[in-house]
Amino acid sequence: MSNTEINLKSLIGDNTREEFLKLLKSRTPFISHGNTESLKDLMSLPFLDSVESLAACWRDTVDVFNPKIADEISKVSLSPEDALNEYNNGSCILFNDVNRIIPKFDRWNQQIRREIGFSELTYVRNLVYATPAGKGNAPHFDQNFNFVLQLEGTKKWWLAKNNTINNPMTRHVIGLPTDHELEGYTAKEFPKSFPADCTEYILEPGSILFVPRGVWHMTEAVTDAVSFNFTFTPPTWIDIATTALKEKLSHSEKWRESAIIDDNGSYNSEFNKLLHGLSADVESWNAVDFLDITEHPNLPF
């Protein structure tokens, strides 16, 4: 392993792991500058030295944002050549799942995931955003945690506390319709404009910004700008519970029966029997029973 192998310490600046976890749990952003040396294994990769270099080696489509909305909710997928033309004409573009290019990205991602303490079920990926000068992303929050590394150019970010909902499971863009599931567990209305009580961050090459889950943010590139994201979408306790519960119930022939719902109530009665049996079993369960399933999937049960 090289001295510059990417790990959690590479991304959290002067913070210790314990200090970082406090920031993560309290949904507190932070910025760290001057990380070029600690991240040189990544920043020196030839295909990341410019958006043109990445486009030249890219073998998939590239997302191009609608300039009127400037968000991934309104995008088209184009060939790298066409996407680069759109970028040169003023559109933001996104290279999804860049970790597919070389194996070391996934190695770094999983190392960081384990150091943070995120579950084995965590969806980890890397994204590269290319943003023309004067353009940026619409104000929104995400359901994931992001470390944003500035590769090229200067970009401004504005972040604000989310006073509407904690721990959202889907993203939301200010001014656009709310996801139906998100609306179902959100008691307050979302703001119509970006919160005035926000903090501005300026990213230059080697800067890292930690954007916690659910925090409002919007961006604008001061110059043409390229950034690399480490994006972590860990499961919620809901996901852990339902994944493990499905595995447990799959051993029961009765629970594996096809669900047939009719009006005479006979199948409701059968379902009630299953639920009553489940409630009795639950009393003897504990966290280890569930985590052994999600975190150690190869163990026999």
Quick structural gist:
The protein is 30% helix and 22% strand. The protein is built from 10 helices and 13 strands.
Helix tally equals 10
Task: Name the poorly predicted regions.
Answer: none
**How many domains would you count in the coordinates?**
2
Query: Which class of the largest domain in CATH terms?
Result: Mainly Beta
Task: Report the end-to-end length measured between terminal Cα atoms.
Answer: 35 Å
Main sheet record: 8 strands, antiparallel
Could you say what the CATH architecture of the largest domain is? Answer: Sandwich
Mean pLDDT comes to: 93
Describe this protein's structure.
The chain is an alpha+beta fold and 301 residues long. It folds into two domains: 8-234, Jelly Rolls (Sandwich); 238-295, no CATH class. The protein is 30% helix and 22% strand. The chain has helices at 8-11, 17-25, 40-43, 51-57, 80-88, 103-116, 180-184, 237-249, 266-282, 287-295, and strands at residues 30-32, 62-65, 75-78, 93-95, 123-131, 140-141, 145-152, 155-160, 172-173, 198-203, 208-211, 216-221, 225-233. Strands 1-11-7-13-5-4-2-3 form an eight-stranded antiparallel β-sheet. Helix 4 runs antiparallel to helix 5 and helix 8 packs across helix 10. The longest helix has 17 residues, at 266-282. The model has no long low-confidence stretch (mean pLDDT 93).
